[in-house]
Amino acid sequence: MNGFYNVIKPIGKSSSDLVIKIRGILRRTTGQKIKVGHLGTLDPQATGVLGVAVGSATKLFDHFLTKRKTYIATCVLGKQTDTLDAVGKVTAECTVPIIEDDVIRETLQSFLGEIDQIPPKFSAKSIDGVRAYRLAMKGVEPELKPCKVTIYDIILEDRPQNDTFRFRVTCSGGTYIRSLCRDIGFKLGCYAYMGALERVQNGTMRIEDAVTLEDIEKDILSGFTSLEQFSASLDRADFSEEMRVKVENGVKQTLPNEDGLVSVFIGGAFYGIGCVTDHVLKMVARDV
Predict the structure, then answer these.
(1) Distance between CA atoms of 24 and 34, rounded to whole angstroms?
(2) To which CATH superfamily is domain 3-66+204-226 assigned?
(3) What is the pTM of this model?
């Protein structure tokens, strides 16, 4: 079983919690120990699309890290927390001035493009081999360096009150929405934290097509996209049956395809997904 689940992660559960649950469901149902891993973590207090890879599809993790992601976030003005979200300890407060919607829209637009972003201290960023959140939990202030991230689109969704608004953002992998809320607040002249977060899209995975853990428990094919189905949108590389041994053994194969993932067929049958770099093929995930 090789492919992907598009799962809705509920609030309060970690991404690893869902991976463990799905791994258990598959083992009970198939009687086999199948490798399972998520394709980009969501904070426990966030909800929405969580891509989960199964079998050889787990080897495509790096590919999904670079995919664009879309979120709907709630930004709360007037307070700052140590975790930059609603569950953290309040570390600073301020009075929120009257801010016009247009000012918020203009501020959001100022983040478009490539920006420098300092990750939250309570994050999985590695500092000399130690996760930043582990240092923060010990009372050590981690030295976090700015990271380059890209904001492709960001718009104001709604504003229920003066100190709270929701926005939709499409961004590169590695973007911390908690940090984005903090920085939006600074530009508006106040403290801010992320009140809520929903990921509505991760690459081609959309919230409209996502299933729950309960759906998978009832039917392990619910919300499942096989490796071959996933490869349908990729460029195709065909090899004759006589070339099977060479492809399987990793003998260098030169292709006319541009750099990126390709769907590999041998003898007319789907074999797996490879990656082309400088016209040279390297197999990544085999459907065996």
Answers:
(1) 9
(2) Pseudouridine synthase (3.30.2350.10)
(3) 0.87
